[in-house]
Amino acid sequence: RSSYSCCYFVLPCCFFDFHGKYSRRQSKKTQYREYLDFVAQVGFVCGFHVEEDCLRIPSTKRVSFIGKSRTYPAPERALIDKQITQFINSRRTCAVATCDRRVGFNHEDHCGGLCQEAGSEPPEDETETAGTIWLPGFQPREKVEQVRNCASLPRDFVDEVVLNVANLLLNAAPQKSCSDKQGGNMSTWNQGESLSLREVAEHLDKEVLKKLKSEYGGLQTLLKNNHQVFEVLNGRVHIRDWRKEKPPSKTKPEVKRRLSAEAFKTRLCWFFIHHPDGCSLPSEACPYAHGTEELR
């Protein structure tokens, strides 16, 4: 509805209607296929020639729809917009009726008197239509999305949290020590204890946790981002022992082998700098630099 010249691409995933979760209506189809047909129907109602394609991506939800051209001439836009309004209101009426049966709230109270009657004329000003209410309660996403995957946190803040969590695991009792028998060396390397994410969170400062909660994924995401130091499995945090890591596969694609080789020794080894026993690997086997003189 933003303009006659707009095109669209959509990759349906979660089953949602205009105003809540999508309700199944046909038992003969799978839920996914029924929802795909609904999304395609929306495109047809909006006056698009809807094309379906299957993306080559590693996902079970990979059917997409593309609308590149209209089924009607530009002068008929007002008529089609009226059709779109009726369609949206009909879907919303179904959703509200379903909610009425489930929780028994009043339709008039719910929509706050903002509901348009089905078939009402759309605003004449196209800009106003795009910028104001298309559907009561609809809030479009901001044009610029804030990155919240812990990647935008200050580096010194991340380093401090990593060091605190690592020290917590290393000092936890009883400590776990792993013998390094490579080359006959029987010295021990402290792998520390494993703790649940909740236990780790309980030992962190409240202000630190508050800052992490503002990021999607929070503490777990930050620890997984720092995979050089930590391994998070089944909700428990471990110090990563690089001696147990599988060696690079010889059958790995050329591109991945090249990227892995290019990244070799481009970052300092956290264990060489911070771990009380140093790195568990000799310098020549560690993918990270043991000192600034090894940095590439």
Automatic annotation (TrEMBL):
E.C. designation(s): 2.1.1.211
Origin superkingdom: Eukaryota
Keyword Cell membrane in record: no
Compartment annotation: Cytoplasm
Gene Ontology molecular function, alphabetical: tRNA(Ser) (uridine(44)-2'-O-)-methyltransferase activity; zinc ion binding
Listed InterPro entries: tRNA_uracil_MeTrfase, Znf_CCCH
Catalytic activity field: uridine(44) in tRNA(Ser) + S-adenosyl-L-methionine = 2'-O-methyluridine(44) in tRNA(Ser) + S-adenosyl-L-homocysteine + H(+)
All copies of domain C3H1-type, residue ranges: 263-293
Gene Ontology CC terms: cytoplasm
Keywords (A to Z) from UniProt: Cytoplasm, Metal-binding, Methyltransferase, S-adenosyl-L-methionine, Transferase, tRNA processing, Zinc, Zinc-finger
Residue intervals of every C3H1-type zinc finger in the record: 263-293
Listed GO biological process terms: tRNA methylation
Family matches, as PANTHER family: TRNA (URACIL-O(2)-)-METHYLTRANSFERASE-RELATED (PTHR21210:SF0)
Summary of the function given for this chain in its UniProt record: Adenosyl-L-methionine (AdoMet)-dependent tRNA (uracil-O(2)-)-methyltransferase.
Family statement: Belongs to the TRM44 family.
The name this protein goes by in its record: tRNA (uracil-O(2)-)-methyltransferase
Organism field: Hypocryptadius cinnamomeus
Lineage: Eukaryota, Metazoa, Chordata, Craniata, Vertebrata
Gene: Trmt44
